[in-house]
Amino acid sequence: MSADTTPAVPRHLAVIMDGNGRWAQRRKRPRAIGHRAGARAVNVCIDFCLEKGIGALTLFAFSSENWGRPQDEVGALMKLFLNALDREVDELHRRGVRIRFIGQRERFSESLRARMAHAEQLTAGNRRLQLVIAASYGGRQDIADAARSLATDVANGKLQPEAIDEHALAARMSLADLPAPDLFIRTGGDHRISNFLLWQLAYTELWFTELLWPDLDVDALQKAIDDYAGRERRFGLTSAQVNPGAVENSPA
Ligand code: FPP
């Protein structure tokens, strides 16, 4: 790959929205209040992407592991997702946002699944921003699902095992039709991927902030993309290869 695969503004931004619980605890409020404040920060992030011309935004809203949280917190989150879908979808549609969901949606209630399907159908033709909500999503599950899909084709005689390479696997993963995330942001101070887009983040630039998700603002997002714009992405090559003409003085 060459330097021209690194646009100044990320084509695809992937975000772990962490810190809602601590935001609420610091105010001596229930964790659900933090999630509600987190929903407002989602709008800040979407507005930012629309303004900057970022084409795709993937948000980690609920992991496969989050089902193990206390029942009242899971219930509050489900209610919040339902309300957010009822409240926001028409406006997002009007603004040219395509909404879709990745993850095990069969684990959600019938009413939530119906709203997810409605949001996807209504906005399917939109092109300005692809908004992907990862819900009941796990990166390992995503890879396992892709592997099973290939194995099924092999078992049915539709695919030769020799034809399985990383491109074949990538084509069966979530987000196969989108460019891999250029930039990953995690709020809340922890420096880990937490079973998010494990496959898709292989060469993504990572950016972490101590800010708690509900405190996210335009300044922080701008800082993240400024930092990203100053990075040299080498994809395993040398600086001279990805940046011909520049004096090579950085280590591989
Ligand atoms: C992590 O913070 C956040 C979540 C598990 C939920 C994310 C949900 C939202 C931001 C709400 C709305 C989302 C949409 C798409 C409408 P945490 O609870 O783990 O925080 P902590 O680390 O401080 O405990």
Automatic annotation (TrEMBL):
Q: Which family does it belong to?
A: Belongs to the UPP synthase family.
Q: Does the keyword Ribosomal protein apply?
A: no
Entry annotation: catalytic residues: 18, 66
The record ties this protein, via HAMAP family, to:
ISPT (MF_01139)
Q: Name what cofactor the protein needs.
A: Mg(2+)
Where Mg(2+) is bound, by residue? Answer: 18, 205
Task: Write the protein's name.
Answer: Ditrans,polycis-undecaprenyl-diphosphate synthase ((2E,6E)-farnesyl-diphosphate specific)
Originating organism: Pseudoxanthomonas dokdonensis
Q: Which Gene3D superfamilies match?
A: Decaprenyl diphosphate synthase-like
Pfam families from the entry?
Prenyltransf
- EC number(s) on file: 2.5.1.31
Gene encoding it?
uppS
What's a GO cellular component annotated to this UniProt protein?
Answer: cytosol
Q: Which GO terms describe its molecular function?
A: ditrans,polycis-undecaprenyl-diphosphate synthase [(2E,6E)-farnesyl-diphosphate specific] activity; magnesium ion binding
Write down the chemical reaction(s) this protein catalyses: 8 isopentenyl diphosphate + (2E,6E)-farnesyl diphosphate = di-trans,octa-cis-undecaprenyl diphosphate + 8 diphosphate
Record text on subunit structure and interactions? Homodimer.
Record: residues binding substrate: 19-23, 31, 35, 63-65, 67, 69, 186, 192-194
Primary role: Catalyzes the sequential condensation of isopentenyl diphosphate (IPP) with (2E,6E)-farnesyl diphosphate (E,E-FPP) to yield (2Z,6Z,10Z,14Z,18Z,22Z,26Z,30Z,34E,38E)-undecaprenyl diphosphate (di-trans,octa-cis-UPP). UPP is the precursor of glycosyl carrier lipid in the biosynthesis of bacterial cell wall polysaccharide components such as peptidoglycan and lipopolysaccharide.
How cofactor binds (record note)? Binds 2 magnesium ions per subunit.
Stored InterPro entries: UPP_synth-like, UPP_synth-like_CS, UPP_synth-like_sf
Keywords of the record? Cell shape, Cell wall biogenesis/degradation, Magnesium, Metal-binding, Peptidoglycan synthesis, Transferase
Q: GO terms for biological process?
A: cell wall organization; peptidoglycan biosynthetic process; polyprenol biosynthetic process; regulation of cell shape
